[in-house]
Design brief:
Rossmann fold, N-(1-d-carboxylethyl)-l-norvaline Dehydrogenase, domain 2, alpha/beta, 7-stranded mixed sheet, two-stranded antiparallel sheet, globular, 9 strands
Length: 475
Amino acid sequence: MIEITYEYGMIGLGTMGRNLLLNMSDHGRSVAGFDKDAQQVKALEEEGKDKQILSTTDLKKFISSLKIPRVIILLVPAGKIVDEVIQDLKPLLGKDDLLLDCGNSHFKDTDKRIEQLKSSGIHFMGVGVSGGEAGARFGPSIMPGGPKEVYERVKDILEAISAKVNGEPCVAWLGPGSAGHYVKMVHNGIEYGIMQLIAEVYHLLKGPGKMINHQLHTVFSKWNKGLLRSFLVEITADIFARKDELTDNDLVDMILDRAKQKGTGGWTSEEAMNLQVPIPVIDIAVSMRDLSAYKEEREAAQQKLQGPEITLGDDKTELLAWIEQSLYFAMITTYAQGMALLKTASKKYNYELKPAEIARIWRGGCIIRASLLDTIHEAYTENQDLVNLMMNDEMAVKLSHAQDSIRKVIKKAVETGVPLPAMMAALGYYDGYRSGWLPANLVQAQRDNFGAHTYERIDREGVFHTEWNLKQGKK
């Protein structure tokens, strides 16, 4: 019997890796899977019965089963495990073999791995994949970066397994080097921001709004049919309707209010600070997850620190209309912040990113997919050099129309003592960006006063310094 030569290899048979492999098999590709964990291998064997799938814990058998030049996908935890896998593979691979890292690796690690493998002739691509386990199984959004000619080798399979919107695959070559992982990092930052915004709305409606879960389910379900139609709003509605299997309660009420994170939101904030790009909604979303971890301190502070005890009225029709507009406003500004970071990073790292393409492939499969992305795609198709998404004529009208609502909602939150820091950051970003004058002149004067950091003037060119303390007779 002639042994099958498999077209693709998958290392890492956890939920994401196994589902992506099965997705590839569904599209007529033969795939070999490897994992050190025998249970993961057995799970694939059971799910892959009657398919052209090899599942093994034997790395050499895995490598020898692959068609040359080999194409191997890595779906293992980001960080040192990726490097360990590469070191195990390197002696077994040859020139023109291709590794695709489809995990959430930091983009700088991807750049290092590309350089480290260059001398051996092994190609390495950083590929962002978004959509969770369901996306991996039935069609994710895929964000590949690396050499264009190398991408062409895997273009067909990536297009086949990706999500489709209007018949178009939600995948595109984004740029050289680590462009794919950079775009995925920013995608995750936007995801952090939108999730925090939704959570703040939940806090306002559940707290002083006194709304119960079935009412919240109805509200979010309605919103998902209009302006706010999106994956995150959709699953939020579903969450409010889910019963706990262990008790008679609603599941959401049984979940501890301590959120975890894997770091991609923090990476986005850190990178934005390095490039001096303001992304306040994403920054505060990261901070609020950090704050949620201080559960015991927050419980103690609740007993000691006083706030208002005000509830909202029974008739919330007007308030809900304001909140819908507010959330829409804040989502626009969050996408704008992410796209602004991508624009600056593209110049810094020579990615040559195309924002219209990014918006296009985010419309399906990924966690931040939303009807709003159709408008964002159109905005960048109309003007690929758009300085900021908010400067698009249609977006400017939407923001202007919704701004009165978000100001009213924030006022309600302040009166009732509900923290809406991401919503406030969205409005602050909008107000700051539209301000032709900001009080940074005072900041510059302060810096020059205490540290002789100099300043610029409005009436002449050059850099200036004032002897503040000496002129005032101070030591």
